[in-house]
Design a protein that fits this description.
The protein is an alpha+beta fold. It contains two helices and two strands, in the order ααββ. The longest helix has 19 residues.
Amino acid sequence: MNRKIYFFAWVVIMGFALVQCKKDRLAKDTPDCIRSKISSIQSEQVRNPPASVWQYDYNGKTVYYIPSYCCDMYS
């Protein structure tokens, strides 16, 4: 009976592990400059607060916003 419980627990843990390994994909039309900035951010140490890139539709165009990670820096 214990083997069944261990096997079930292993299957559940592996299922969660596979779901958690999913990577976010960028849209194909993401500009190279934004892709470059995202790569640059990913190569840095983890920030506090976490780094983010926001995408908006403004006046019919796609725009991007990257908040500053510290107090007196421009975004």
